[in-house]
Amino acid sequence: MIPVSKSGSSSSSFYLDQIQDSDIEFEKKLLKDPYDLKTWLAYIDHKQNETAGNLTEIALKQGTFSVLRRATNSLYGSYKLWNLYLTYRLQLIDEKIERTNQNSNSISNSISNTNSNDIISVNFDLINDTVQEFNRAELTMNKYPKFWELFLNFIVKYKGIIKIEFILEKFDTCFQRLTILQHEIIWPIYLNFADQIEGEIAFEIW
Length: 206
Description:
206 residues, mainly alpha, globular
């Protein structure tokens, strides 16, 4: 279970490895002004529409991911950038976990002593790092219902790995940060969570 402790940060060398020749003009503009939202959005759009060429699909996605994360580092208070980054990150997480599980099933069918703990470890790290990124975003995005929808749906989805106490704490924080009128957006997620866990905690939520 995740008591959330690891950092989700990436190294500078990882970012540099993702820069392609077609990115140079954007990099030059950002060297002059790293806080230009329009340049970051144009750069992100460029990466998302980049054709493969000599790059693999994974390399293309890593390139987009690195630009999105750099953008949130530079413009920490931009809701638009955080929403783009977190949504894209969740997409990559789901894709990677699905591939990991498919590989696990394939190996298990042919090798009887496959260690499933290796697969669990991969999923744990991916989810733990993503929780850390949501925690990072929460510092400035905690007044936006859309942020909480993304965060809460994510941790409920992976409640088998994330501690129930942590999930309950985040729901409490969410209700404190949002206005009463905005609570109606969150209640369906909360009640769905209660239905899934059942027991005394579910009874208290209802």
